[in-house]
Hints:
The protein is α+β, with helices and mostly antiparallel strands. The chain folds into two domains: 1-30, no CATH class; 34-164, Molybdopterin cofactor biosynthesis C (MoaC) domain (Alpha-Beta Plaits, 2-Layer Sandwich), CATH 3.30.70.640. Helices cover 28% and strands 28% of the residues. It contains four helices and five strands; from the N terminus they run βαααββαββ. It has a five-stranded antiparallel beta sheet. A hairpin with a 3-residue loop joins strand 2 (91-100) and strand 3. Helix 2 runs antiparallel to helix 4. The radius of gyration is 18 Å and the shape is elongated. The two termini are 33 Å apart. Residues 1-9 have low confidence and may be disordered.
Amino acid sequence: MDDPGDAVAGDRTFTHLDEAGHARMVDVGDKEPTRRRAVARARIEMSPETALALAGGTVPKGDVLAVARVAGIQAAKRTSELVPLCHPLMLSSVVVDLEVGESHVVVVATVETVERTGVEMEALTACTVAALTVYDMCKALDRSMVITDVALWEKDGGRSGAWRRGT
């Protein structure tokens, strides 16, 4: 029988289940390390007044964007502690960008490594925790904020190659 850890894009094998249906961590020990990259995005909808305070740096709790950036980087580094079946990875780069719009913030996390498995979960975790940090630091101004559209946008490397949302 083929190793379920050898699933490729389009294969419907559940790689995190053994033959009895029990959860397991996929064995990637025989794979060669390759350069891998993933980009994820999230959006935080908010009132125009909150976005204006963020853009102007007048949120009472301090520099929200700087704290959210660091929170996202820290989250990427600790993904395997938060998501039970993720492998701990040595990340070579984590970049978290936040762009303030008229009534929203877009968070983009880009994570890179040279490893045996991808960094999609690290990118998703980074942008989600950065978005949660924006919410936490701005909630006194706007409890109606909504975090939306958390999604993987790109991934490169590994056996399945490149993937882009919408292509």
